[in-house]
Amino acid sequence: MVAFFEERCVIMNKISSGVTGLDEILGGGIPERSIMLLTGTCGAGKTIMGLQFLLASNEPGIYVSFEEEEDGIRETAKIFGWDIAKREAAGKFRILKYDPFRLEDILEVIENNIREIGAKRVVFDSVAALGIYLKEASELRRMILQIDRIMKKNKCTTVIVSEIIPGSSSLSRFGVEEFVSDGVIVLDNINVKGEYKRAVTVWKLRGVNHSRRMHPYNITSRGIIIDPKNVFVK
Ligand SMILES: Nc1ncnc2c1ncn2[C@@H]1O[C@H](COP(=O)(O)OP(=O)(O)OP(=O)(O)O)[C@@H](O)[C@H]1O
Ligand SMILES: [Mg+2]
């Protein structure tokens, strides 16, 4: 069993998350072709981290937005000095905006876009917005599994964003997202003596010996920076 586990770790190709300190707490980076859930409360930095993941590498990437408009995403990126328009012009980046209540054939359209630019990284922000328009959580589970199948078929590494309602003990909006993902990154906003502090945890990562600690992080003018050496203390 141990030998099998070690072998999986050795053959697993890792790619950089692009977020300072995150690769270290992930145990070496994001496993290539995995589907990662990025979850947290509102304003925790999920969109910023999603953009950082896409813009970290020179490989083509696609940002699928179910909420924010294209221009809003470009503006957010600009604040941190990331030039999306330049990448778009070079045919290496696309923002696909969909209304979550009109989902027919979107996966087919997304797959066509992946093929057209040879995308290797894809972010879905957020699947929680998708779930609101589906009748049952099981439909969202099926949809995420479908996303995972298509992304793996196209050799893409994927980040799906969900959300945590403050005070809830669930890791996601619909309670299914964390089970169908290969890994889960949780962004917390914690009240410490009247001041909200940020902490990130790698909740799970299949086949990897990752950090189990809560690590402090900050949103800075250069994006999200995690301190992998320190543990968050309340
Ligand atoms: N220039 C900046 N410097 C420091 N912090 C910033 C800066 N710009 C934004 N922030 C922080 O980032 C937060 C927004 O980040 P982001 O949009 O990624 O959050 P989110 O988790 O995607 O939120 P939502 O759930 O609303 O989609 C702001 O609420 C603010 O706290
Ligand atoms: Mg967001």
Cα-atom radius of gyration: 17 Å
CATH architecture: 3-Layer(aba) Sandwich
Stated plainly, the CATH topology is called: Rossmann fold
Number of strands: 11
* Low-pLDDT segments: 1-10
Overall shape: it is globular
CATH class: Alpha Beta
Provide structural commentary.
The protein is 34% helix and 26% strand. It is an alpha/beta fold and 234 residues long. The protein has one domain: P-loop containing nucleotide triphosphate hydrolases (Rossmann fold, 3-Layer(aba) Sandwich), CATH 3.40.50. The strands form 2 sheets. A 9-stranded mixed β-sheet has the order 5-4-6-7-3-8-9-10-11, sandwiched between helices. The protein is globular. The structure holds adenosine-5'-triphosphate and magnesium ion. Magnesium ion binds at residues 46-47, 125.
How would the blueprint of this fold be written?
Elements: H1 2-11, E1 14-15, H2 22-25, E2 30-31, E3 35-40, H3 46-55, E4 61-65, H4 70-79, H5 84-89, E5 93-97, H6 106-117, E6 121-125, H7 127-132, H8 137-153, E7 157-161, H9 177-180, E8 183-192, E9 195-205, E10 214-220, E11 223-226
Parallel strand pairs: 3-7, 3-8, 4-5, 4-6, 6-7
Antiparallel strand pairs: 1-2, 8-9, 9-10, 10-11
The site of magnesium ion has 3 residues, from helix 3.
